[in-house]
Amino acid sequence: MKISNRKFFASAILVSALLAGGVSFYASSSPDGLEKVAEDVGFIETAKDHTLSDFTLADYGVSGLENARLSVGLAGLIGVVATAVIAVGFFTLIRKKATSKNQ
Amino acid sequence: MVHIPDGFIDLPTSAAFAAASTVAVVGAVKGARKQLSEQSAPLAGLTAVFIFAVQMLNFPVAAGTSGHLIGAALAMVLVGPYAATLALVVVLIIQAFLFADGGLTALGLSVFNMAVISVWVSFAVFVVLKKILPKSKTWVVVATFIAALVSVPAAAIGFVIQYAIGANATFSVTTVLNAMVGTHILIGIGEAIITALTVSAVLASRSDLVFGWDKKNSTLEIRT
User: Fold this and answer.
1) What is the mean pLDDT of residues B147-175?
2) Which residues of B touch A16 (CB under 8 A)?
3) In chain A, where the domains are located
């Protein structure tokens, strides 16, 4: 079963948007591996606040949005769009440069 | 793992790893130029999008601990190691600058662990396994699973090396090593499951797009 390029790319974007925009609300909020190790061993004390911790989208939430589901979901969707624009643009750019060099 | 906050590792060590990461990224751009085709360039971008999305999904691994996908092995199998390094770098930059996830001075450390160590260790494991294992889609998924499993403790060891060189704390390196590796083997199992499922889905729908799958094999498979 081979599906078309358009279908393949569209479903990948759709799945990513659903995961970042919807499923992300159900993600575990326990500390991640490094954070937990840092807490257990004790070096968590040396962590500094993030330079941009007051930024609108810090920690995957839209500041000002009270509804947690909406806040993380919207932040996730913004991330998906930002990544798509930057990553697809970047890879297309380096590939184009390669083609023009070969000619 | 894996997004290191500012402060864990001192500035000289962070700067040194930022320099090493920059060299690796320049090398990856050169390598990716040769490997990317008209079809795999958008796929590499899409892989970055998918990794960003799945990295938001922390799954519980043990009491009070969670983990999330790194995506290094996933990107490596789908688009090759050079483009995988670059896809991870894009994701890490967006997370650090847009979502305050991962310290800005620590960015070079995180890039080195996830975009360089994780990607290239999983690539080495994958290449060796593909030589040993039978040539079928099932076995490519098995190789993917193992490469992904190994990629997570590999990144964790990367952090321990950075801790050993330039920690701002004085706890013993052995203690940190044991805790990091133990926790990240568990997270690695989650990484392996997600990576194997995703690669299976792409192999089933568009095996021609998968870097880790040799197109020659697919003609053989149709005949049998």
Assistant:
1) 97
2) 46, 49-50, 52-54
3) 5-102
